[in-house]
Amino acid sequence: MFAQLILKECRQTAKSIIYWLIVLILVIFFSSQLGNMDIAKKPKPGLESYGRYYSSNEQDIMKATLGYLVSEYTNGKYVTYPIGFYKMVTPDKEEQKRIGEIISETTGLDTKEEMEKALNAETEDSDAEASDKKKNHIIVLGGAPIAPSKTLTYDRFGELMREVDHLLGGGSQYNKKHLKTNAATPKTYEQALQEYEDLMEKDHLTGGYARLYSDYMGIMLGILPVFLAVTRGMRDRRSQMRELIASRRASSASVIVSRYISMLIMLMLPVLLISCIPLMECIQYAASGFHLDYLAFVKYSFGWLLPTIMIATAVGMVLTELTDTALGVLVQLAWWFLAIFSSMSSMSGGMYGLDLVPRHNTEYNYAGFHAGFTQLAANRVLYAVISVLLIAVTVWIYSLKRKGRLDIRGKLLGNRKRKSQA
Amino acid sequence: MSAKIKIEHLNQYYGKKQALKDVNLTIHQGMFGLLGRNGAGKTTLMKVLATLLPKSEGKITICGVPLENSAKIRRMTGYLPQDFSMYPNMTVYEAMDYLGVLSGMSKALRKKSIPKLLEKVNLLDHQKTKVKALSGGMKRRLGIAQAILHNPRILIVDEPTAGLDPEERVRFRNLLCEIAEERIVILSTHIVGDIEATCEQIAVLNEGEFLYQGTVSGLIEMADGKVYTAQISKQELPRIKEKYIVTSILALGNNVMVRFIADQKPFASAKICEAGVEDAYMYLMNGEGSEV
Amino acid sequence: MANYWEIGKENLRHNLLIHAGIALLLLCFSPLVLGVKNLGLSETAKVLEIYVALIGIVLITPVFLPEQNRDLRDLIHSKYTKVASIYSIRVIESILVLMLFLGIYLWFLHRNGCEMDAAMYFAGTLAEMLFLGGLGIISYSLTDNLVAGYMIPIFYYITAIGGGKKFLKSFYPFSMSQGSYSEKYWLLAAGIVLIILGIRIRSRK
C-alpha cells in the first residue's frame, strides 16, 4: 500500500506546474553554468600562470595574514564579510590600540612607520626578484606578506587572530575559517600537473566533474525543493480535500512520509538525468582504455545533493503543515541567502564546515576534497538526520491536525472571512 | 453483530462556547437523520464521530470500539463533509483510486469496486472526466462513492443535499436509502423533506441539545391533532402568523391557504388535518416540544 | 471614490499588514548581516539592489491572495466593483508602502554616513522592486499558484547573483553598484507592464 501511495504521489507531482518549473529552472541553470564545460587538458610547461591555490603551510598563512593585518591597521579600516556582504569596520581607539599590541607581539613591529616600511620593503623586494622565485610568492592584495616573529607559535597566532576577529565583530580575514584562504599562492607547473594527475587517476575524471556538478546544482537545490513541498502541503486545503484524507485509515506517517519520499524521488530524477550530459562529455573525452568512474555522478548526486534536497523539502513540509501558509518559502529563502553568501569564501572546496550548500567550485582540488571528506560526510549526514527529524515532527503535527487538536492557521488568520471582502 | 453507535454524556466545547450539551444517543442499523438549524451542532457531532474533532467529555463506542481507537474507527467509517472537493486535475477514477489507496485497499480490490461504485452513483461514463469539470450534483455523488469505497459499516454524510436541484435531491436520497440497507447511515440536514422520505430514526438538535429522538412517526404524533388549515384573506395573514406557527402558505388569488399549528381549534373555518414531519418539526423548534 | 477608499482600508488591515510586517522585519534584520555604515557609492547600491529590493517580492506578489478560494473569487467577480480596480488599489498600496520603507531605509543609510545619489538610488531600487513584484504577479496569475509567484522572481534573482549579467543584459538588476542606471529604465517599464498584464489576466479568470 505504501509503495502504491508513493507512486500515486509521484504521478501527482508530475502533473504539477511547480514541478515542471523546477525542472525547467534546473535545466536552464545547468546549461548557463556548465553548458560549455571544457574538459581539463594536461597543463603545458612554461606558461605564464597556472592559477592559484591556498597554501596550507603555517608559515605562509601567518605571513599572508599578518600582511593583511598590518596593512589594514595602518589604514585604520578593516573589511569584513559577515555573511558575504561587504562591511567596513572602523574600530574605536581602544580596539585599535589592542590590535597594535597584537601586531607588536606577532611581528615585532611597534610603530606605524616601521609597519609601513615593512609593507613597502616587501613589495619592492618582490618586484626586484626574479620571476622564477615570484611564482612561489604569496599574494597579498594591497599589501605584502610580513614575516612573523621567530618565537610565535601557530597556536598563539590563531588565538590572537581570533581576538582580532572578535574585536572586528566577526566575518573578517582573521577568523579561523578565513585564515586558510589568506595565503593565496600562484601554482607552479608541477603543482598544476599534480592536480591534473589527481583528477585523472584518483578521481577518474568523472569524480572531479561530479563535484563541480554538485557544487552548482546544490545552489539551486538548496531552495527549489521548498516550493514543491509548500505547494504540495497547501494543495489539500486548496482543493478542500483535507477531511476526505483525514478520515481514512491510512496512518499519518504513511500519508506524510509517502509524500516526502515521492518528492525526493521526483527531485532526484532531473538531477540524475541532467548529470548524464557531463557524464557523456567525460566519456567522449576519455581515451579508450582509460579507467572512467561511470557511477561518479550517481554517487555524488546521492551523497552530496540528496541531503540538500532532503532538508529543503523537509523545511517546506514542516512549516506548511504547521501554519498552512507559504512561510516555509520565506524561512528557507532566508537560510539559503545566508548560507550561499557566507560560503562564498570557501568556494574552492575542502572547507565544507556546516554549510547548507557545500561549495567546491572546481573540478580540481582532489587533495582538498580528500582532506575535508570527513567534514563533508559529517555535514551531509547531519542534514539528512535533521531532515528525518523534521519529517517526524511533520507527522506529529499532521496527526494532531487530523484529529482536530491543532489549528494554528485558524488562530493566525482568525479574521480570514472578513479579510476576503477586501 | 449488527452495527451500533452508542453515545453517552457527550459534551463538546469550543473554548468557552458549548457546542454539544450532554448528548446521549444510540444509533442502530439503517438510516439515521440528524435534523436541526444551521449551527445547531450537527457538523460538530459528525466530525467527532469521524474522529476529526477530539471529544471534550463523554463516552462513544462504534460497534463496541471506543472512539479513542481512531485507527480502528477510521476503518469502519466513511465520511462526507459538507464542503469538500478533490484534487481538481485528477480524473474521477484517479481520485477514487487515490483515496482507495489511503483506505488501504489492494490494487485488485480497487479495480473491482471502483467501477461498481461509480456505476451505482451513475458516474461510470464520467470516470475519465477531471474533477474540476464536474457539476455540483456529480461532485456530491462522487463524494458518496468515495465515502463507501472501503465498504464502511458506518457512513456519515453532512448536509449531502445542500445545493442540489430537486431532481438530483430525490435521486440522492434514494441512493442513500439503498446504501443504508446494510449499514448505518447518519445524515444531517436542515431540510425536513430529506428526513421524511428516508429515515426511520431521527434526532432533532437545537443549540447543542436534543429536542427529540425517536422515529419519524413518533415525531409526527407529537403534532397530531394540532395542525389546521384554513382559507383566509391576505390581510388576515399577519395576525395568524403572529399568533400561530405557520408551516406553509399557498396563495389562492386574493386569499391564501395557510397551514398552521394550534393547540385547539382556533376558529370555525379552520379544518384539522393530518400532521406531517414538517409540521411536527416546526412545532418542536418553536419551543412547544420541550417536554421531550 | 469613497468605495475605493474602503477597499484600500480593508486591504491595508487584512492583507497588506502581515506582508508589510514581514518586509519590515527583513529590513530591520539587515544591520545584523550587512554593513550599513560608511559605505561608498557602490556598496550602498549593493545593499539596496541585493537586499532591500527583495521586499518587492514580499509586498507586491500576494495581491491576489485574499481571493485564492475559487468560490470567493466568483463572488467577488460578481460584485459591482470591478475586480481589476480592487487589484489595482492593492498594488498601488503595496507600492506606496515600498516607497515609504525605501525612503526610511535610505534616510537611515544616509545618517550612517553612506554615500549615495539619493534620488537615483530611490528610483533605481524602486524600479527593481516593481520588476521583481511584476514577475511575481504575472507568474501568480498565470499559474494560479502563489508559490510559483514567489519562485519565478527568486529564480531571476538567483540567476542575477550567479553572474547573470551576460544572460540578463538590459534586465540585469544589480547595475547600480556598477555605476549604470540604464538597466533600471528597462526594469521599471517591464515591471509596470508585467503588473498590468498580471492584473488583466487574473481579472478575466
TrEMBL record, chain A:
Segments traversing the membrane: 17-35, 216-235, 256-280, 300-319, 326-344, 381-400
Signal peptide: none
Keywords noted in UniProt: Membrane, Transmembrane, Transmembrane helix
Designated name of the protein: ABC transporter permease
From TrEMBL, chain B:
Keyword annotations of the record: ATP-binding, Nucleotide-binding, Transport
GO MF annotation terms: ATP binding
Xref: Pfam families: ABC_tran (PF00005)
Bilayer-crossing regions: none
InterPro entries: AAA+_ATPase, ABC_transporter-like_ATP-bd, ABC_transporter-like_CS
ABC transporter domain: residues covered: 5-232
Family recorded in the similarity comment: Belongs to the ABC transporter superfamily.
Protein's name according to its UniProt entry: ABC transporter ATP-binding protein
Annotated source species: Faecalicatena faecalis
From TrEMBL, chain C:
Presence of keyword Transmembrane: yes
Keyword match Membrane: yes
Transmembrane segments: 16-36, 48-65, 85-108, 120-140, 146-164, 185-203
UniProt keyword terms in alphabetical order: Membrane, Transmembrane, Transmembrane helix
Domain of life: Bacteria
Protein name, entry field: ABC transporter permease
Species per Swiss-Prot/TrEMBL record: Faecalicatena faecalis
